[in-house]
Design a protein that fits this description.
Elements: E1 14-17, E2 23-36, H1 40-44, E3 51-60, E4 67-75, H2 86-90, H3 100-110, E5 119-126, E6 137-144, E7 149-150, H4 153-156, H5 162-180, E8 184-186, E9 194-197, E10 202-205, E11 211-213, H6 222-227, E12 245-250, E13 258-265, E14 273-278, E15 283-288, H7 305-315, E16 332-339, E17 347-356, E18 359-370, H8 378-455, H9 460-469, H10 476-501, H11 512-523, H12 530-555, H13 571-574, H14 584-601
Antiparallel strand pairs: 1-2, 2-3, 3-4, 4-6, 5-6, 7-9, 8-11, 9-10, 12-13, 13-14, 14-15, 15-18, 16-17, 17-18
Helix pairs in contact: 9-14, 10-12
Protein name: DNA double-strand break repair and VJ recombination XRCC4, C-terminal
Keywords: Coiled coil
InterPro entries: XRCC4-like_C (IPR014751)
Length: about 600
């Protein structure tokens, strides 16, 4: 339920009390929330005003180390009117609903009960204009937080908690006897109502929101342990000798009638029983001895003796069906009939049968004879039945709570599993969608590039430049060595040029033919590439002509005579002279040849 706009329920709110003494408590943490919502239809039929109960941990405004519990009861709007205007909700205000917890804690405080938490403060008032129901009632109850923790099923029934469980039982019996003197107990006693401190071995009883009167004359029995969850009823009989059972058997001789049978244990054996029955007019009695149970079998009974003992124990309410044999008791039934016409010598015969589909087999019977001197205490029988019903109700309530808790856990886990499966599917779909999107973008880019290449005009010069800038792997090591040699020859030519420049300072003549011959002799062992030879021939011719003209100009600058024709050393390899071509023609031929060579290599 939303408490937005209701600051009195906010964490950190300071609540002022005047009873039983002036004090202030600060809300620290919310523990539980119980909303009893009601419709207008239920309210008109006397269900009482709807209300909510919040439980908090709080601390004293003057001492934050002093802890306590606070419970707040307050009226809430009728279902469907939560968001109406405050003046409309104000019309729903009613006198305070009676909550027994405050009255019980007041009484126990007044009588100074030592085994329950002490009532510290309380306040009964009305909600303000910012309340969920303006002018509706609101009640605060604060009680002491005693040392220890509430017991739980896991704590008490842990296989290693045997000594602790026995210590708790011993202490609980003393505490219960003390609580019985004050006439109050929790309406639905359970382990959670027992607060036990293992260090100090102190115990308190708490949880009086749904309290019930406790008869001071009521005696403590083993059933008390069962009621509070400190014992589990065993399957064998004899554990509740001081707790007789009242059984009801339908009459087979008169439709709609029945007999009541009071069963109590009288001997050391589990099935040493005393039976007292009545059909509403006369008493009937019988004794059952476990040693003589075989006499009660039918003549055609074919089962074992152990099966018969279990059958009689189940029919007389001394045990339950074994959990490891859930189908064993299927079809077992018992009915009563009255025989005898004499008013003083009638008998009640309780017959045990087993029904298998349409076949009914008689297993046995036991007879109760009329005894008018036997007293039938119907009031006592009614009390026993009510106590038994209360015990069963507590067990059903405990099992229902555990079932609901398990069901909520399963439901929550299923929701988480569904969320994970949904997230997994959504994630996979997103991955596939992203992959498809990237793939389509790549395909589109490839198609656009293909269209662009198909529609574009290729410039052979650009292609040649690009191909020339990228070394071809197919040339291998020979291409690299040729490149290195070409670089060496260029460096040698540069060095020669540097030597000619020094002739201006030092007029020592050098023989260019000797230099060329030296280069050629150094390069003769290698086998040049045909293209390299063509490029080298062209380069050598140009460089030689430039060197010769420069030398002639330095020797006789006044003479303008063309240099004499000479044979290049490369003629030794080719076997004939190399033809000179026009100065512009070699560059064009080299360019064309280079382009064709690059295309062939691609």
């Amino acid at each position: 339920m939303s408490i937005i706009g209701f600051p009195e329920l906010y964490i950190g709110t300071e609540v002022t009390f005047t009873a039983p003494s002036p004090q202030k408590w600060v809300i620290e943490e919310k523990l539980t929330e119980d909303v009893q919502q009601m419709t207008k239809w239920r309210l008109d039929r006397g269900a009482g005003p709807p209300f909510a109960v919040f439980k908090y941990v709080c601390h004293s405004a003057t001492d934050s180390e002093k802890k306590a519990f606070m419970r707040i009861y307050f009226q809430i709007p009728i279902a469907g009117t939560e968001y109406q205007r405050p003046e409309i909700r104000q019309q729903q205000a009613t006198p305070p609903r009676k909550h027994r917890e405050l009255d019980v804690l007041k009484d126990l405080r007044l009588r100074q009960c030592p085994v329950v938490p002490t009532l510290l403060a309380y306040k009964e008032g009305k909600q303000g204009n910012d309340g969920v129901v303006p002018d509706g009632y609101i009640t605060h109850v604060v009680w002491d937080k005693v040392p220890g923790k509430s017991l739980s099923q896991d704590k008490v029934w842990d296989p290693k908690s045997g000594p602790l469980r026995e210590a708790i039982r011993v202490k609980f019996r003393d505490i219960w006897e003390e609580l019985r003197r004050y006439g109050w107990e929790p309406g639905m006693p359970a382990l959670e109502n027992i607060i036990y401190d293992e260090v100090t071995e102190t115990m308190h009883i708490a949880g009086f929101r749904d309290s019930a009167p406790l008869d001071p004359e009521h005696k403590f029995t083993d059933m008390t342990f069962v009621d509070w969850g400190l014992a589990i009823p065993p399957s064998n009989a004899g554990w509740e000798k001081d707790n007789p059972r009242i059984l009801r058997f339908p009459r087979s001789d008169e439709t709609g009638s029945f007999v009541l049978v009071h069963v109590s244990c009288t001997g050391p054996a589990p099935l040493d029983l005393s039976l007292t029955a009545t059909e509403g007019e006369s008493p009937y009695v019988s004794l059952v001895k476990q040693a003589r149970l075989k006499e009660l079998q039918a003549k055609n009974y074919q089962g074992s003796n152990d099966e018969w003992v279990k059958t009689v124990s189940l029919i007389l309410g001394q045990c339950v069906a074994p959990p490891n044999e859930p189908d064993w008791a299927t079809g077992l039934e018992a009915s009563a009939s009255i025989s005898g016409s004499d008013e003083d010598n009638k008998e009640i015969v309780i017959t045990i049968r087993k029904r298998v589909q349409t076949i009914t087999q008689r297993l046995g019977a036991f007879t109760l004879t009329q005894d008018d001197e036997q007293a039938v205490e119907l009031f006592e029988w009614t009390g026993i039945t009510a106590a038994r019903a209360h015990t069963l109700e507590q067990q059903v309530s405990s099992l229902t709570s555990r079932y609901r808790l398990a069901e909520d856990t399963i439901h929550r886990l299923n929701e988480q599993l569904e969320e994970l499966m949904h997230a997994k599917t959504e994630h996979e779909n997103r991955l596939v969608a992203n992959f498809v999107q990237v793939l389509n973008e790549k395909k589109l880019k490839i198609r656009n590039q293909q269209r662009l290449l198909a529609s574009s005009t290729v410039d052979p010069t650009k292609v040649s430049e690009i191909q020339a800038s990228i070394p071809e792997e197919s040339h291998g090591v020979a291409e690299k060595s040729h490149s290195i040699k070409r670089s060496a020859r260029k460096m040698s030519d540069t060095d020669d040029s540097d030597g000619f420049e020094q002739m201006d300072i030092d007029p020592i003549k050098t023989d260019p033919d000797a230099s060329n011959n030296q280069d050629i002799d150094d390069e003769e062992p290698s086998t040049p590439h045909p293209l390299d030879e063509e490029q080298i021939n062209s380069t050598t011719d140009d460089d030689s002509s430039q060197d010769e003209s420069a030398q002639l100009k330095r020797v006789s600058p006044a003479r303008d005579i063309a240099p004499p024709q000479r044979d290049l050393p490369f003629a030794k390899r080719t076997g004939g002279p190399i033809k000179r071509t026009a100065p512009t023609q070699p560059s064009e031929d080299a360019e064309e040849t280079g382009g064709e060579t690059d295309d062939d290599e691609l």
